[in-house]
From TrEMBL:
PANTHER family assigned: THIOSULFATE SULFURTRANSFERASE
PROSITE patterns listed in its UniProt record: RHODANESE_2 (PS00683), RHODANESE_3 (PS50206)
Keywords tagged on the record: Repeat, Transferase
Pfam family, one: Rhodanese
GO molecular function terms attached to this record: thiosulfate-cyanide sulfurtransferase activity
Source species of the chain: Sulfolobus tengchongensis
Keyword Disulfide bond: no
InterPro entries per UniProt: Rhodanese-like_dom (IPR001763), Rhodanese-like_dom_sf (IPR036873), Thiosulfate_sulfurtransferase (IPR051126), Thiosulphate_STrfase_CS (IPR001307)
Name this polypeptide is given: Sulfurtransferase
Chain ranges of the Rhodanese domain: 11-118, 147-265
Coiled coil: none
Record keyword Repeat present: yes
């Protein structure tokens, strides 16, 4: 469900609009779509471990944002709209199926000349009951390591990260990993290659060409640094191109690139083993 800016503008009062931000102080409060509520992407995370929020916490977050289980929720975000796709993946897992993503995010909205506002949106709290998550579209590192040569791996990071020239993208340059490179056998398809200049998702025909070499019959695992950019690839494969068996490794390079004893490939290595 990719929603275009014109449709959203005409239906502002009929949907729940959520801006999912990495840095709300820079994004939401400088200007947001009218009636949009703010959810920090960290609100989807567990408070005491590196995992996702419990159904109870997520229920409180969404209820406090004035959302019910039946609402049609349209997501958009900062950071090239990546966290909208990430939130979509998470919310689908928790059973909220009535979801859309603003195609092109706030950038496309502003480019097309639609209005923004900077005030906090007042909402009436609702009761929300998130379901027990279905993680069939998720893969943890333990399972991944057991089947590295059996799955098709897609690395959604930049070419520089994939080749091991840098250990973090410019927007997260303080978050380095011990190792640089990529998971052995991974194919590099940067997530930005799926987007047009206005940050909208490319046409289905163009996307099919990008993934023409990917075997639909195999299990596909996508990853990036923390899962956000890879969620765009997951969305394209699953929701637009109808690939059946696509899973997101949300531990991604932040986890894998800091693990001891796992194989790593890079442009600087001569074999698949990492060096101490």
């Amino acid at each position: 469900m990719l929603i275009d800016a014109e449709w959203l503008y005409k239906n502002l009062k009929d949907v729940k609009i959520v801006e999912v931000d990495f840095n709300p102080k820079i994004s939401y409060y400088e200007g947001h779509i009218p009636s949009a509520v703010l959810i920090n992407w960290r609100d989807f995370l567990n408070d005491s471990s590196r995992d996702f929020a419990s159904p109870e916490k997520l229920s409180k977050i969404l209820g406090n944002a004035g959302i019910s289980e039946e609402d049609f929720v349209v997501l958009y975000s900062d950071m090239n709209n990546r966290y909208a796709f990430y939130a979509y993946w998470v919310l689908k897992a928790y059973g909220h199926s009535n979801l859309g993503i603003l195609n092109g995010g706030i950038y496309k909205w502003l480019k097309d000349g639609y209005p923004i506002e900077s005030d906090n949106v007042m909402v009436k709290k609702r009761e929300y009951k998130a379901k027990k998550p279905d993680w069939s579209s998720r893969i943890l590192v333990w399972e991944l390591l057991s089947k590295l040569r059996q799955v098709t791996l897609i690395d959604a990071r930049s070419r520089e990260e994939y080749e091991g020239l840098v250990t973090a993208p410019p927007e997260h340059k303080c978050e380095q990993t011990q190792m640089s490179g990529h998971i052995p056998g991974a194919i590099n398809i940067p997530w930005t290659s799926l987007l047009n200049d206005d940050e909208t998702v490319k046409s289905k025909d163009e996307l099919e060409k990008v993934f023409s070499a990917i075997d639909k019959s195999k299990e596909i695992v996508v990853y990036c640094r923390t899962g956000a950019r890879a969620s765009v690839v997951w969305y394209v494969l699953k929701e637009i191109l109808s690939y059946k068996n696509v899973r997101l490794y949300d531990g991604s390079w932040v986890e894998y690139g800091n693990m001891v004893g796992v194989p790593v490939e890079s442009s600087n290595s001569k074999d698949n083993q990492n060096e101490s």
